[in-house]
Amino acid sequence: MTMAVDAMGGDYAPVAPVEAVCQAAKSFSDTQFVLIGDESQLMAAAKGDIPNNVTLRHTDVVIAADDEPVRAVRRKAESSLVMAAKMVADGEADVMVSAGNTGAIMAAGMLVIGRLPSVDRPALAPVLPTFDGRGVLLLDAGATMDASPENLVTYAYMATEYAKHVLDIENPRVGLLNVGTEDTKGNAIAKATFPLLTQSRLNFVGNVESREMMAGSVADVVVCDGFVGNVVLKLAEGIGLGLFSGIKETLTSSFMSRVAGSIIRGKFREFRNRYDWAEYGGAPFLGVAGGLIKAHGSSNPRAWYMALSQARKFVANDVLSKLSSAMEDRQE
């Protein structure tokens, strides 16, 4: 198994990805890692200690966070992000991981790697923490703003296969994100999607409200268009960050609070980890004809390591071929 890593993408590149890759290389001796980026910076980040199953591929071209995605992919063919995508497209790597420009990763997936047959629009599928600790797979979280009802049904089929083989859920429950549970609720796309999902071979449980989605007890997979999904994703992240910050501030606001905080520190850390997005790894672009995992832009070494672990499981469980088979079976 070979993993191509865009080491120059993300807020803490290249230190965070390099540290994570070096750690992962020691944990997964059967995996080859290719770090792509400025070699001098990569060596400095690794402090000269590169594991035997890690190789470096030099480039000093980087796609910035504010670059226009399609133009950047076309004009910066030697960037670390595009080089990683080319490795997947050429069969040099089984999967790529990047924390870079989301739009550029999507563009590279479409233009360089290509789409699976019968998939019109790929979807970004992160796992959101839920109150029951199971997590929920949300898609699309921002790849396609204006999706069709048929796109949403395709997302549901792909997400079901991913949930089975990566999240280890035997018969994933699929919900349609909506403003109410009644089948007559919602906008035009939700109303048109509901009967299509009802008639599908999926384990469709009906419309799901956002509060039910976060509870985690109703559905394992929730589908929506990319505009709504991205708003939900960022709102959930913002609430989580604000909640943890508020609790920490409260526990350090006075001497007695600090004493109480020292007593419950272990439980608070356990609580924080349960709802920390970093523990859930990256988000796959489902529908791309190759392994493509998007790590969070602000990923620290721990979040990077989880994304690498997720990418490894994606390949080890042959998820790509299972997605292809699911799409073929759906056409029959």
Largest sheet: 7 strands, mixed
Structural Rg: 20 Å
**What gross morphology would you assign?**
globular
Q: So how many helices?
A: 12
Give the CATH level 1 class of the largest domain. Answer: Alpha Beta
CATH topology of the largest domain: Isopropylmalate Dehydrogenase
User: Got a strand count?
Assistant: 12
Instruction: Work out the count of structural domains.
Output: 2
- Helix residue percentage: 40-55%
Your description of this structure?
It is a single chain. By secondary structure, the chain is an alpha/beta fold. The protein has two domains: 1-118 and 287-318 and 327-332, Isopropylmalate Dehydrogenase, CATH 3.40.718.10; 120-278, Isopropylmalate Dehydrogenase (3-Layer(aba) Sandwich). Helix content is 48%, strand content 14%. The chain contains twelve helices and twelve strands. It has helices at residues 15-27, 39-46, 69-75, 80-89, 102-113, 149-165, 188-198, 210-215, 226-251, 255-274, 301-316, 319-331, and strands at residues 2-6, 32-37, 54-58, 95-98, 123-124, 127-128, 136-139, 174-177, 204-208, 221-223, 283-286, 291-294. The protein has a seven-stranded mixed β-sheet with strand order 3-2-1-4-12-11-5, with helices on both faces. The protein has a five-stranded mixed β-sheet with strand order 6-7-10-8-9, sandwiched between helices. Helix 3 (69-75) crosses helix 5, helix 6 packs across helix 7 and helix 6 (149-165) crosses helix 12. The longest helix is centred in the C-terminal third of the chain and has 26 residues, at 226-251. It is globular. The mean pLDDT is 88.
